[in-house]
Write a structure and sequence with these properties.
Elements: E1 2-7, E2 12-17, E3 26-35, E4 41-52, E5 57-67, E6 69-74, E7 87-92, E8 96-103, E9 116-124, E10 131-136, E11 142-147, E12 151-158, E13 161-169, E14 175-180, E15 187-192, E16 197-201, E17 211-213, E18 221-225, E19 234-239, E20 243-248, E21 256-262, E22 269-272, E23 279-283, E24 289-295, E25 300-307, E26 314-319, E27 324-326, E28 329-331, E29 335-339, E30 344-348
Antiparallel strand pairs: 1-30, 2-3, 3-4, 4-5, 6-7, 7-8, 8-9, 10-11, 11-12, 12-13, 14-15, 15-16, 16-17, 18-19, 19-20, 20-21, 22-23, 23-24, 24-25, 26-29, 27-28, 29-30
Length: 356
């Protein structure tokens, strides 16, 4: 079921629903637009939308122009004081990491429609490379940042200040994924255009990875997720080689590739459903968006639904948090997806039966 759609001012590449209960209707969307010419520039924007799936509402509430943005992430729920919640971080083409605070002048049902962003802190992670991806650690006091020169940076966030703690050459080419382990936050997983999937133990320092696999992925590693709260042993990777792979990481020095499925397009984003983590939303670049069900601890994997109403590169994808009740019945969470060259944002509700 389609809720609504909108054409944006630039090329959208990331969508993120706010995970906080009071602002679960807030959707953040970032864009990256390369303007070519004698002096090329990378421009972008950061927009907030108010989404009410029951009412069929998709409404722009706030927009700010920025450098071109590659990634955005909301801080996890409940780990820092209310004074700083909710927080949204961005990684941009000028080599900056920025953290914004979501604000509203009202309370109750009108709070989300009046939401805006105020920048709290910024840090230039690199003056020569672009920040391509980011992830908050579970305590929201540090952020991992992957860069276009293959570096990985760990940036602390305390008292509205950002400070680089560590930075090292993690890969040979662009780092497209840098994800904390929510169950073991001293671990950071990275993926790169060099086809390597790596893990770094921050307690041991960055001199050597805890593991580095360079044989399984046939092309660059685009995304990594280990945010299923009910399964600390399973990790997912997505690659340009069109495969979603499931890993057993109980042996951190030698993870096991359990199984995989070809999704027919480069797998750019993977998001567990917040209420039913066995369902995973996938952005498949040249093949639209897919909904995948993973059963039996990763032993069985099936594509249960596809969504093909975008006509360009499928990049951004996320689930809206909280239950959706329509006519007294529980429905699937709403989904936001965006595609790059046609500048299209869509909000829709999956049709498959996730809740029995």
């Amino acid at each position: 079921m389609d809720v609504g759609h909108c054409y944006l001012d630039g090329n959208p590449d990331a969508v993120e629903f706010c995970p906080h209960d009071s602002f679960k209707n807030v959707l953040a969307v970032s864009t990256y637009t390369l303007q070519e010419g004698d002096q090329p520039s990378r421009l972008g924007s950061l927009s907030l939308f108010n989404v009410d799936a029951c009412a069929g509402l998709l409404e722009l509430s706030h927009r700010v122009e920025t450098a071109g943005i590659f990634d955005i992430k909301w801080a996890p729920v409940g780990q820092v004081s209310d004074e700083y919640l909710p927080l949204l971080a961005q990684a941009d083409a000028n080599g900056y990491l920025r953290v914004h605070k979501l604000e509203s002048s009202s309370y109750g049902s009108s709070a989300t429609s009046e939401a805006s962003l105020r920048e709290l802190a910024d840090e230039q992670v690199s003056s020569t490379s672009m920040c391509l991806c980011l992830d908050w650690n579970p305590s929201s006091n540090s952020i991992s940042v992957g860069l276009s020169d293959g570096s990985l940076s760990i940036v602390s966030f305390t008292e509205s200040m950002l400070e680089i703690q560590e930075m090292w050459k993690a890969h040979d080419f662009e780092v497209w994924a840098a994800s904390f382990d929510i169950h073991q936050p001293q671990l950071v997983y990275t993926g790169s255009d060099d086809c390597k999937f790596s893990c770094w133990d921050l307690r041991a320092g960055p001199s050597q990875p805890a593991f580095q696999n360079s044989k399984i992925h046939k092309m660059g590693v685009c995304c990594i997720t280990k945010n299923n709260p009910s399964d600390p042993n399973t990790l997912l990777t997505g690659s340009y080689d069109e495969h979603l792979r499931i890993w057993d990481v109980r042996s951190i020095s030698k993870p096991v590739n359990e199984t995989s499925v070809c999704l027919g397009g480069g797998v750019w984003r993977l998001k567990h459903n917040p209420l039913e983590p066995s369902y995973v939303l996938a952005a498949c670049m040249h093949n639209g968006f897919g909904l995948v069900r993973i059963d039996n601890g990763g032993e069985k994997i099936d594509v249960v639904e596809t969504y093909g109403k975008h006509e360009s590169l499928a990049y951004g994808a996320d689930w809206q948090r909280g239950e959706l009740i329509v006519d007294g019945k529980r429905k699937n969470n709403a989904v936001a997806t965006c595609s790059f060259y046609d500048r299209l944002l869509r909000v829709w509700i999956p049709e498959c039966q996730m809740f029995l």
